[in-house]
Amino acid sequence: MKTYLVTGGAGFIGSNFIHYMFKKHQDIHIINLDKLTYAGNLENLKKVENNPNYTFVKGDICDKKLVEGLFKKYDIDYVVNFAAESHVDRSIREPELFAKTNVVGTVTLLNVAKTAWEAESGFKEGKKYLQVSTDEVYGSLGKEGYFMETTPLDPHSPYSSSKASADFMVKAFYDTYKMPINITRCSNNYGPYQFPEKLIPLMINNCLGKKPLPVYGDGLNIRDWLYVEDHCKAIDMVLESGRLGQVYNVGGHNERNNLYIIKTIISYVHDNVDSTVDESLIKHVEDRKGHDRRYGIDPEKIKNELGWYPETSFEIGIVKTIKWYFDNKDWMKNLTSGAYEEYYKKYYKM
Ligand code: NAD
Ligand code: DAU
Predict the structure, then answer these.
(1) For 90-146, what is each residue's pLDDT tens digit?
(2) Which of 7, 26, 140 is nearest to 67 (CA)?
């Protein structure tokens, strides 16, 4: 039985990953280490909480003693590091927190795993540390071209700079110690359980409550959208078959601008839920500082080496996602009645 230490497993992608892994594999043990910040939500994991092969530990990835204790107690085969501060707007306001969690947290995990996995010559067999990174480390694209694994890193926001710093630390552990690692860099994820501060769940939630839909700047910034389950599949494949020391970009040629996304959501809600919801809800607001214009991933390497491809087109994924939020209104209500509502009032002033 393989044992996975999944960090940040109560967040959006981490919880989807835990569900994906238990569906796909019979014989695995997952330890979920999560600090339960505003973004961590144990409701995301209700379906697995009684699974004897699932263990939840509340704690901080920066807490070296706690992480060492986990490596002493369990024979951990894989570390999958999702834990992070993940929202660009928050990083612009609180850069220090992002450096602490995303950089210091990553080095803490790496160093403890290295000590636990070291053998007489090299590392014990079958161990791997996987860093879940982001396409934002490459910076911003013009109209042409794609991010490749060889594209030089050029992060702009405190968030992407902290993720790039973490990537360099992971690379350093490979270059210096030959520690078994992989880095995945994916594009914007969407799907169930995403905290409604990010574009898609925020717009769905605001359509539900008939609140204004805040569009930063001209709304023509482009992101490359990836359905979260396709991302989970990629991580599983990289863990199993990724060449040690390699970076894999994960994305699916699903580039859309923000206004297109918002209008798609409005149109679905208008036609299927509430015909009074329309484009008059769109409100252009001040642009994000240092707003990256375009992200676009070249996924050829993971496709050619591991046979990964995204199964969900944007048109199918967005409808599945909108339906999920409508079918899970209580999930959203529990979040939006607390910290989110304060956050929204404070920063959107609408
Ligand atoms: P999220 O904000 O939804 O979840 C982050 C989780 O990490 C939360 O459960 C939170 O409680 C936990 N956490 C935060 N600080 C912690 C700490 N110090 N110790 C332990 N746990 C801590 O994030 P997400 O969108 O699921 O993203 C997961 C990872 O994927 C992040 O590393 C992010 O940079 C990366 N990523 C996300 C996207 C995306 O579109 N969401 C795209 C590319 C990469
Ligand atoms: O590319 C991967 C990254 O995608 C991840 O590494 C990050 O963790 C994740 O948060 C996401 O970052 P973005 O900044 O691209 O996502 P966000 O949902 O915050 O914004 C998407 C686009 O929508 C961006 O151009 C800003 C715009 N936007 C966002 C919000 C929240 C708006 O116009 N209005 C909004 O209210």
Answers:
(1) 999 999 999 999 999 999 999 999 999 999 999 999 999 999 999 999 999 999 999
(2) 7
pLDDT over threshold 90, residue 156: yes
Ligand 2 binding pocket includes 134 (Cβ within 6 Å): yes
Residue 81, ligand 2, Cβ within 6 A: no
Mean pLDDT of 164-185: 98
Q: Which of 12, 88, 135 to mutate to test the pocket of ligand 2 (most atoms within 8 A of CB)?
A: 88
Contact predicate 211/350, CB 8 Å: yes
| Chain-centroid distance, C-alpha 345 | 25
Q: Kindly state if the Cβ of 44 falls inside 6 Å of ligand 1.
A: no
75 is annotated as an active-site residue: no
Is residue 136 part of the annotated active site? The answer reads yes
Instruction: Write down the pTM of the prediction.
Output: 0.98
How far apart CA 146 and CA 141 sit, in angstroms, is 7
Is residue 187 scored above 70 in pLDDT? yes
Tell me the pLDDT of the chain averaged across its residues. Answer: 96
% the chain with pLDDT above 70: 98
43-46 long-range contacts (CB < 8 A, ≥24 apart) are 43/331, 43/334, 44/10, 44/11, 44/12, 44/15, 44/193, 45/9, 45/10, 45/15, 45/18
The per-residue pLDDT for 345 is 78
Segment 252-298, tens digit of pLDDT: 889 999 999 999 999 999 999 999 999 999 999 999 999 999 999 99
